[in-house]
Amino acid sequence: MWRDEAVTFQVARRSVPQIWRLLHGVDAVHGLYYLLLHAVLAVRPGEVLLRLPSVCAAALAAGLVAALGARLARPRVGLWAGLLYAVTPLVGHYAQEGRSYALVCAGAAGATLLLVRALHGCSWWPYGVVLALTCLLHELAVALVLAHGVTLLHARVGRRDGARWAAAAGAAVLVLTPLAVVSRAQAGQVAWLPRPGTGSALRLLHAFLGTGGPVFWTCLLLALAALPGPRRLTLASVALPWAVVPPLTLLAVSQLRPMYDDRYVLYALAGAPLLVAAGADRVLGAKSPLVPLAGTLAVALAFTQYLPLYRQDRTLRGRPDTLAAVSALAAREVRPGEAVVFLPAIGRRAKVSHPEGFRGVRDVALEASGPASGTLYGRERGAAELRRALLALDRLWVLAEPYALRSPWYPRNPAERVKLTVVTEEFVPGEPRREFVRDGVTLRLYTRRPATPAGPPAPPPAPPRPGRR
Fold it and tell me: Bias category Pro residues: which stretches (predicted)?
């Protein structure tokens, strides 16, 4: 597990009241997902069940993409689109990660298929329900509503269908409103996101259509060949807004308030293989029974180009960090009873996700655990109390994030400033020097700074010289 998966793992194992309390302060956007994983991990906590919902959701999304292609075009288009979606590396990455993004993709594909069915005479309420659940899994999926609106405008649907869509979509947005209000107060969680530029858009284009080379250019040309023609409901009129509108909307909004990340618009990727498959169908046009086989072989050939990415994605190099390795390092170096301080407090995630490596260790700054305090990583002592606790130590292990020991870092939190100040002013790296770096995290032993020698005693003052009479 890397850090985001570790959050899922430790939050989902809390009780429902503890999860509910946490969501009032942090991570409300993932609340429904945490509750779902709570039920899943109740069977048996572990990495396999943590990731199993994402695997199933990605497989379901591929099937739904195929169903859309078959319904709006013909079976071979559905076959090609579903297979191409399944082998796309970005899909594969989030299919085996314990976060909500693959489930959001399945929900978006299901809502889009239900939209098409409703426009052909089926009930509208399943569309509204699935759309609402998808947005509750991640609120930025609400941009899918805009994509569907563009589809309906292009298809020139009747006033009656337009009103029914507006009612279903409006109900979904209304359900989402309380979550949006709560999560707005938690916007600091994405304060690290930069303002996206042209590079972000190009990177996403390559992620949707291929990492580069002949696969990318072939997919791009086929997608262009599928651009919508007559103003009616076609596969291209559904797929193009789905692939384009959510990313462009989030990129535009992020120019004013950065909140863009590729994974937040992953659900829009499904429109790209549909366009590619529709373009291939238009280019080939033949009715020969060998054409579906030829398209399938082309997808298999593309998959062979992606194999190195898939292999790397399933090694430790495919993760930004490995918290189990950090925990193992602490278990090897820190003895039971020794004191450790996490700088900053978010570094405690290794202990929270893999407590076995920190068993018996004194967490000097911790006042209340995460479940008890309704936080992710626990509540720490106040600045004054923490200073007294640190000054009472002669030996201290510091587990620090990469930036925490650099001189330009100046934390706003008073407790973090106390940690940094006391460690740098009252302690020195232990002798012999003991420092270990693992997955970007530094574990360093500090000992109390020796007192400065007082020097030789001052000579007594000379007796006063007798003055002249």
Answer: 453-469
Same domain, 283 and 342: no
**What CATH number does the domain containing 422 carry?**
3.40.50
DSSP string over 83-150 = HHHHH-HHHHHHHTSSSSHHHHHHHHHHHHHHHHHHHTT--SHHHHHHHHHHHHH-GGGGHHHHHHHH
Specify the higher pLDDT residue, 26 or 402.
26
Let me know how many helices (H) and strands (E) the chain has, helices first: 20, 8
Q: Could you tell me if 238 and 151 are in contact, meaning their C-beta atoms sit under 8 angstroms apart?
A: yes
| Contacts of 219 by beta carbon, 8 Å cutoff, 6+ apart | 209, 210, 272, 276
Residue in 58, 51, 53 with CA at minimum distance from that of residue 89: 58
- Tell me which residue range forms the domain holding 391: 323-448
228 and 169 within one domain: yes
Which position has the token pair 């000379």? Answer: 462
| Confidence category of residue 168, pLDDT binned at 50, 70, 90 | very high
Examine the domain organization and report whether 312 and 353 are in the same domain. Answer: no
Tokens 């979509």 correspond to 169
Measured distance CA(46)–CA(191) in Å, rounded: 31
Q: What is the pLDDT of residue 73?
A: 93
- In 314-382, alpha helices (H): 323-333, 349-353, 370-373
Report CA 341 to chain centroid distance, whole Å.
26
C-alpha 282/C-alpha 226 separation (Å) is 7
Q: Which helix (H) or strand (E) holds 79?
A: helix 75-87
For residue 213, name the pLDDT band (cuts at 50, 70, 90): confident
Position 437, amino acid: V
pLDDT in tens, 421-458: 998 889 988 766 688 888 778 899 999 888 766 556 55
Residue at 462 is within a domain: no
- Is 452 exposed, middle or buried, given 0-12, 13-18 or 19+ CB atoms closer than 10 A? exposed
44, with CB counted inside 10 A (0-12, 13-18, 19+), is: exposed
